[in-house]
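Students often ask why we bother encoding 3D structure as a string. The short answer is that it lets us treat folding as translation between two languages. Here is a chain of 151 residues written in the first language.
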Amino acid sequence: MSSSIVLPPGFGHVAAGLVTTAWVLGWQALVVGSYRTKSGIKYPQLYAEKAEADASKEAFLFNCAQRAHQNTIEHMPLIIVTTLVASMKYPVFAGYASGLWALSRVLYTLGYTTGDPAKRNTRGGILGELPLFGLLLGSTYTAFSLLCSSA
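And here it is in the second language, the structure alphabet:
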């Protein structure tokens, strides 16, 4: 027995949006690695200790870069699930929202690594909340529609 999955027209936007998140995560990993090298924080230490960060601007910036990357990773399950579910009805919207969210993470990271963590949101990083909220609404509506149509 074989089955087929039919992707909706415009699903390429979804693929592009999700692949953009992968590129951003890769870029963030390079940023973290660069700050790790500059700070001298060795593996497997995840963050600089408070005393290290207080004594060294490089160690503090490493913590900022690491936290920006970790925060992005923490959001990834939510982004992937909501993008894929919303894309069943709204593939173009889901793809663009996912891509916009990913690009907002670049601004978030650049703001965070200024040395003033408050700038993670003031440099445009907060813009990522809009597509995330749209994906939550779109995926919720899509799931509800699917449930109602199968009843």
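Translate back mentally: The chain has a mean pLDDT of 94. Keep this in mind for the problem set.
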